[in-house]
Amino acid sequence: MGRQPGPTREDKTEFYARQWFESMAKFHRIANPATWQFTEEHLIKFLRSKLKQDMPAWKRLKIVEGVIWYRNNVRQTSEPRLEMVRAKLQEIVAREVAREREKKDEVPIEDVIGKINPREPDVIQELRKKLRVQGKAYNTERAYVKKVRAFMADRGLRCLADFQGIGATEVEAHLTDLAVDGDVAPSTQDQSFYALLFLFQHVLERDFGKINAIRSTKAVRIPTVMSKAEVTQVLTHLSGVYLLVAQLLYGCGMRISECLRLRVKDIDFDQGLIEIHNSKGDKSRFAMLPQQAVEPLRKIIESRRRLHERDLATGEASVWLPNGLDRKYPGAPKEFKWQFLFASAKFSRDPKNGKRHRHHFHADTFAEHLKRAVGMSGVLKHITSHTFRHSFATHLLQAGTDIRTIQELLGHNDIATTMIYTHVLARPDIRVVSPLDRLGVSHDKSFAAQPGLPVSNETSRVATGETRQSMVEKATVLPTETVQREAVQLEAGMDSIVAGLANVASAGNAMECYRGPHADEEVPGPKSQLTVVHSETSRRKDIGLAKDAVDGDAFDRKLLGGTWMRYVGAVFSVVISRVLGNEKDQLHVSTHSLRPVVRSPVDSIDGAKTANQLIEQLSEATQLSG
Questions:
Q1: 515 catalytic, yes or no?
Q2: Catalytic residue chosen out of the listed positions 99, 206, 218, 280
Q3: Would residue 412 show up in a list of annotated catalytic residues for this protein?
Q4: Nearest-5° angle of CA 181, CA 183, CA 187?
Q5: Of 88, 285, 386, 588, which is the active-site residue?
Q6: Using CA atoms, how far apart are residues 388 and 371, in angstroms rounded to an integer?
Q7: 527-566, pLDDT tens digit by residue?
């Protein structure tokens, strides 16, 4: 005997439609439902009764749809008009469905806030809760808590209730004390102001009004910048992972926090890029990948893989992820690509939720090694990890990179922030000579005559009777390759130098220009010839101009400063020797501009493939220039 087919969808719709209509008639105590002329008001009253019984909106919508079906198919009429009731219930159903979805995706407030020490003052606990709910960085939380604690100690406050009588007067007095008695930096006073502003607005939920406190004077400070030789000396005394960190800081212009937060997935070897996430202001950007750092990065990733496999074997593999990614991707904390590149040697607990992770090593660890390296290098400047970032921007600017590109590489919102590096740039087109040096009187002998005082190189030259002319002649013995390399690195200033040389070059001598290591043709080959526009003056006048250039102060390497000026002097001395009749030396000066691809300052020396080779070449260059 075959199975009988069940009721169709239309049968079910008709069944439930008649059931809901009979229930509505029973609710209104109608004796004969078949002849009952119901209205929209009857249906609304029936639905309200179901609402009081906690019937969900989707089920009440089914009642309306059933009554409409009964009206259309049994009564075969269009009255009463019930479409407006159905549309309203559809909106309510949509809101309830969205609310249910939010409940499923919603993270418990305890998970967002994490663990808070119950022994802390209640106002500090509330402050932490508000900061974490708004997703503020943990460093911001630490700073705000510290400033609020200082304000409470200054005013003798212990709990939330003590803030009832606290207002603008107390805040203003506290900020004034910081500026007058504390002599704090403007940034410290600003941090206290914003911490108290957040406390009043989000914890106390009131405004403290206008503040007229005495503000700290904000001094305009220029950044400390290392020369290339100083960068070389510092890098020479770093090793291992700390050398790689320093190379990335200088070669990419990163902040130390950005460098330490790099994850395995952020290194793109194929495109030569590094992704920087969760930067200052929660921004992201791309940075160039220095070629000198490629091999060291490959090695550290391989070393990091072995460490991660060991953590997986012990069941401890885990890493902190921002913005709730561990909830969105539950398996991500154990995936290798999400691991920190510069991992700590031991596990640590998240101060917010207490979970155990392998975090990156602390920034203070690198600071200790950097301080030791700076001391051993003999560099007397105040060097921090951020100094590499300043040097990165300044050296790119010296190499001819436009300011907008540098702004993007540094991640600055305002180009005015990037323009600070133009103040520390030694421009070869602006030559200012001190009035003291124009007197022509040297006091080096008086210093040299005093016992116990060190004698400088310039002092020893004066004591031995060495003249400026002889020093220039001595500079001509520098290797031609050295002159070429330094000329390539000074392409921005060389254009003006070559223009000046054109006035003293003899009409019969042509200067050669070749494409250096920054050009598209990397392999040295036949040098393309470029004839400089020569002066039409006589040979005798050219010789006079050349002597004036040597004897004058304009190209005194000591006045202009910097090792490279010695090579500028060498360039002039070679040209002068040719003007005077010595045709043996051929001068090769690079006058082409940098190609559009911006190269990292770390890669400015050719031939080095590894970090060790880079150090060797940098040391070699230092010896040549010293």
A1: no
A2: 280
A3: yes
A4: 130
A5: 386
A6: 13
A7: 333 333 333 334 444 444 444 444 444 333 333 333 344 4
> What's at 174, amino acid-wise?
H
Closest CA to 258 of 238, 235, 285: 285
Edge-to-edge strand list for the sheet holding 285-288: 267-268, 273-276, 285-288
Please count the residues of the chain.
626
CB count, 10 Å around CB of 408?
14
Q: 329 an active-site residue?
A: no
349: phi then psi, degrees, rounded to nearest 5 = -105, 140
Task: Tell me the pairing of strands 285-288 and 273-276.
Answer: antiparallel
Active site residue 265: no
Which of 50, 128, 147, 255 is catalytic? The answer is 255
Answer whether the bond into residue 296 is a cis peptide, omega within 30°: no
Residue 346 CB partners (closer than 8 Å, separation 6+): 358
Which residues in 224-238 are b (16+ Cβ under 10 Å) and which e?
ebbbbbbbbbbbbbb
DSSP letter for each residue of 273-341: EEEE-S-TTS--EEEE--GGGHHHHHHHHHHHHHHHHHHHHHT------STTHHHHSTTGGGSGGGSBS
DSSP codes of every residue in 149-213? HHHHHHHT--SGGGGGG--HHHHHHHHHHHHHTS---HHHHHHHHHHHHHIIIIIS-S------P
Spans in the chain with pLDDT lower than 70: 1-6, 98-99, 101-112, 218-220, 423-431, 440-599, 604-626
- The model's pLDDT over 378-406, given as tens digits with 9 standing for 90+, comes to 999 999 999 999 999 999 998 889 898 99
Nearest Cα to 133, choosing from 111, 102, 148, 149?
111
Nearest to 57, CA basis, from 84, 92, 85: 92
Q: Exposure string (b/e) for 569-581, b if CB count within 10 Å is 16 or more?
A: bbbbbbbbbbbee
Q: Which is nearest to 386 in space by CA: 399, 370, 397, 398?
A: 370
Choose the catalytic residue: 421, 557, 578, 599: 421
The answer to whether 389 is a known catalytic residue is yes
Q: Establish whether 250 is a catalytic residue.
A: no
> Token match 């990165």: residue?
392
